[in-house]
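## Example record

The block below lists the input lines for one assembly entry, exactly as stored, with component labels intact.
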Amino acid sequence: MTDGPGRFASNEASPPPTARPIRSFVRRFGRITRAQQQALDDDWTRFGIDFVPVRADLDAIFGRRAPRVLEIGFGNGEQLLASALADPARDHLGIEVHRPGIGHLLLGAARAGVSNLRVIAHDAVEVLDAMIADGSLDEVRILFPDPWPKARHHKRRLVQPAFVATLAAKLAPGGRLHLATDWAPYAVEMLAAIDGCAALENEAGPGCYAPRPAWRILSRFERRGLGLGHAVFDLAARKRG
Ligand SMILES: C[S@@+](CC[C@H](N)C(=O)[O-])C[C@H]1O[C@@H](n2cnc3c(N)ncnc32)[C@H](O)[C@@H]1O
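Predicted C-alpha cells for the full assembly:
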C-alpha cells in the first residue's frame, strides 16, 4: 500500500516528527582557508578514514599493530599532531566534525610527514558505536569539549555517564581516559561520570582531579578559558582489569 494524497487529512493525527539525534556539536560553516581546503583535497586519502558503519581494521589502516591513542573533538589538531610526533610508538586517531580544523591538521600532518596519524570526519558517538572495536584503544582524550552552559543544552554535553561507559568499553584493560575542561560545572559532571563508571578507576582518587599532564599543550580553547579567568580541570582514569 502506498501513501496517497490526503493520507493525513485534517481530521487525522499528524505523522510523528522524525526523531533527530541530540548532537554534541553544531555544524559551523566557518571560513575555510584555501590552504585548508587544498589539504582536504590533497591529503584526505593519506590521512583520512571515511565513515562507514562497520568495524575499522585499524591494524591494516596504520600498517602495523601498535597501541592507539584516540582524541575526540581535536579542534585544529595541534595537540593530536604534537602527540603523534612526540610518541611515534603509538598510533594516533582523531575524530572531529569541523572541516577547517581537519584541514588545518592535514596541512600540518603533511608538512611533518607523520605516519602514525589518521582522522575520521564524523560524529564521534556514531564512530565509536560502529567502527571502533571494544578493548582496542590504549588511551582516549577529550580536551575542552563544548561546555553547553545553558541548562536546556546540558543534554548535548558529550561527556555523560552513558558515553563514558562506551569509552571504557573501547579501552583495553589498563588503558587511560583523559578529560580536561575550563567549565567548572562540567568538570563536576565529568568527575561524577568517571567515579560512577564501574569499569574505570579515577587515578587521582574518587572525587579528585588529576594534575595537568606533561603532554598537554596549551590549546586555543584553554587559552581562551584562562583569559576569562577560568580554572582548568584535568581528569584521568584507568580501565580496570
Ligand atoms: C571547544 S572545541 C575544543 C577543541 C580542542 N579539543 C581544543 O582544546 O582546542 C570542541 C570540539 O569538539 C568537536 N566536537 C563536538 N562534538 C563532537 C562529536 N560528537 N564528534 C566529533 N567532534 C565533536 C567540535 O567540532 C569542536 O571542534
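The radius of gyration is 20 Å. Residues 24-25, 72-75, 95-98, 101, 123-125, 143-146, 158, 219-222 surround S-adenosylmethionine (CB under 6 Å).
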